[in-house]
Amino acid sequence: MAENEQKAAEKKGIDPDVRFRYLGFDYQPGKIGELFKSEEEKKSWVQRIMQRRQRGAGVRDECTLMVPRVAPYEKIVLTVTSVLLVLSLFFPWFSGYKEFQVEQTPTEQQALTDDSGAGGTETPQKDERGFASISAAKKKVEIRKEYASATALGAFGYLGDVLSSGFILMLTGILFLIYMLLCIGLAAYTLYALYGVKGDPDTKAVKLKKILRWNWIPVAIWGFCLIISFFGADYSFNTANTLVQIDKSYGIGTYLGILSYGFYITLFAFIMNAVKAIEI
User: Fold this and answer.
1) How far is CA 132 from CA 97, 108, 234, 247, in A?
2) Which of 60, 158, 200, 228 is the most exposed place for a label (fewest CB within 10 A)?
C-alpha cells in the first residue's frame, strides 16, 4: 500500500507553488530570502528594466551574445594570412645545395713547405748545377657548395620529371599542385567571406566558418605526403649533378630536406585560418 502511494506521488510531480519557492532546486535548495532591501530599491530596478525594454534592449549589457563572433583584430589576422598565401607563391618553396670539388695547385713556396715538413726548416736537394728539383706537388681539394632554390611557380619547370618518376613521387607532385591551387582559391574565398558577404554579423560569421574549415585540406595534404614519403620512390632522371637533398632516391629525408620557408609560411597560414573556424 505504501509503495502504491509513493508511486502515485512520483507521478504527480512537484507542486508548482512549492517549486518556485526554491532557488537553484538541487543546486542550492532552500527558500528564497528577500532579494531587495526595500520596496523603493525594487521599484528602481523594475523601472530600469522597463526603460531598457522600451529602448529595444532584450539582454543585459555584459551578455556574451553581444560579443561579435569575429572581432576586428581577427579580421585583420585573417586578411594577413590570406594575403601571405598568395605572396608566398613567389617565395622559395624548395631549396638545397650542390657539392663540387675544386682542385687547387699549390704555389712553389707551398710545395717547398710541404716537402720540407712543418715550419720549412729543411731545404730541397740541389743538383750539381745548384738547381732545386721538385719531384711532385700535392694538390689540395676543396669542396664547395652551390645553393639553389625554386619558388612554387618556378617548380613547374620540374613537374615533368616528378610526374614521370615513381608512383609515390608522382602522387606527391599531383597533391602539391592541388596545394598550390588552394593557396590562391582559399585566400580569395576567405577575403570574399570577410568583405563581400552581405547580411548581419552572425550570417557573415557562419559563412566564414564554413569557408575556413576548408583550410584543413592543405594541412592534410602535407601530412599525407609526409606519411607516403616513408615508402620512397625512384627517379626517372640522373641525380649525379642535382641537389644533395635529392639523394639517389626519393624518401622522407628528401621530402623534409627540400621544403623551404616559403612553403612553411603557407602551412602556418592554413593552420591559423583552420583553427579560427573552430572558435567561431
Assistant:
1) 44, 11, 56, 48
2) 200
Q: At what angle do helices 216-228 and 261-279 cross, to 10 degrees?
A: 130
- pLDDT computed for residue 16 by the predictor: 61
Separation between Cα atoms, residue 15 and residue 26, nearest integer Å: 15
Read off the pLDDT of each residue in 151-160 and give the average, rounded to a whole number: 88
Q: How many CA atoms lie within 13 A of 164 on its CB side?
A: 7
| Cα 221–chain centre separation | 12
Q: Work out the number of other CB atoms within 10 angstroms of the CB of residue 202.
A: 12
Q: Is 259 helix (H, G, I), strand (E, B) or coil?
A: strand
What does the CA dihedral 250, 256, 259, 261 come to, rounded to 10 degrees? -170
Whether residue 14 is predicted with pLDDT greater than 50 in this model: the reply is yes
Q: Do the beta carbons of residue 159 and residue 153 sit within 8 Å?
A: no
Beta strands in the chain (DSSP E): 92-104, 140-151
C-alpha cell at 31: 527558500
Question: What pLDDT, in 10s, does the model give residues 101-152?
Answer: 776 666 655 555 555 554 444 455 555 665 555 555 556 767 777 888 899 9
Which cell is 84 given? 601571405
